[in-house]
Please model this.
Amino acid sequence: MTDTTNIRLDYGSMLAPRLGGRGLDPERLAAAAGRFREIHANVEARREDGTLGFYDLVRRTPMVGQIEAFADGPGQAFENIVVLGIGGSALGTTSLLHALHGRDWNERSAEERDHFPRLFVLDNVDPDTIAPLLDRLNVGATLFNVVSKSGTTAETMAQFLIVRERLRAALGDDEGYRRHLLFTTDPERGVLRRIADDEGIVTLPIPGNVGGRFSVLSAVGLLPAAMVGIDLDALLAGAAAMEERCRTDALLENPAGVFAALQFLAHTEAGAGVHVMMPYSDRLYAMADWFRQIWAESLGKRKNLEGEDVWVGPTPVKALGATDQHSQVQLYIEGPFDKTVTFLAVDEHDHEVAVPPAYAEIDAIAYLGGHTLGELLDAERRATAAALADSGRMNMTIALPRLDAHAVGQLLMLLEIATVYAGGFYGVDPMDQPGVELGKVLTYGLMGRPGSERADIPDPDPRRVLR
Ligand code: PA5
Model:
């Protein structure tokens, strides 16, 4: 029986019968079932041996209670919470905030926010963003949540040093400033851990077996979520429901398996290595950003599991419906056959806005009157999907019954598990990111970090610079 709280995956338009011969032969998908069984068994073994810790985050542990106790107690003394972090330490939190409270949360009055704090996520080191924000905020009413698994990331550490100085200047060098800091980091390793121990700063752990981009359901995302009143139980229950649906090794019954297999086959057998995620919901746009990171950083790899050079990986792209119908869709429909498009749809929006009937004599606009904006948005999505399919373009739709914590928990878990399965199909380790290291090392060298002397970046060739 279909559960009406379940998110749905409609993938008919990935397959040749709907695409006039283009797209994937359903037989090829069916044939991937054997390979999927092996991948699934391998993933289950890795869960057992504790190397895929993100699966365990769906269970309510004592840590969740501690997070709620902090958020409901001392946390409510703050008017603002500012997350300092980048990549996997930031994107999931923004996705949760936008999906569940909207993109305008911080612009609302305290009453409209039910007196929950504003939530800012500083995921960059652009001085033109950070200086105005810190100047505007009352740091004495702000909690700074420094989030870093490694506890060494240059961007996050620089943000921390700046904020610490501001806090000390405003609140003095004794106990006061520490109460405005909370570190979310590795339970044992890293500089943040050491500073927390030395200075008595409150910390929350990121389990050692949970990688940054898989950490949204750890304290990384749950603490800020709880601070702004997001229902953690519903979020985790949604994630657990998806984890349960993905227990099966029967490919065609496993939503994450189907998503991963179709994207992989589209890439390797139909030349569609550009994977567009296109929510028809402003509130889910940040989710496409989060997906872009987990898909790119997990699957873009030089080496396969045997250590051979393979240079593989899909290129995730984000787009927003209906906005990007007037920007990107021309390319998707008539450009090269190198893309898949995954639409995110919301069945029931929180708000209903009616378009008033007017100008009965002008057919070109009169037809809109009496409809709602939700109907228009949905019609635009269905029309775009149909136009893509009619043009032989592979697309699928993930539909959320509504934008609530249960559905968002399902979506996050679906895409996390799909990423791990896709790693299996591509034959790479989705948990590492060796390619990011060189850039980090060169940055350390340029910034003068001891022990990181390598900074051999040549100056630009003046003959090749136009001034
Ligand atoms: O997914 C990852 O591992 C990365 O995107 C990290 O989250 C990012 O580099 C930040 O790392 P850290 O949390 O160690 O500061």
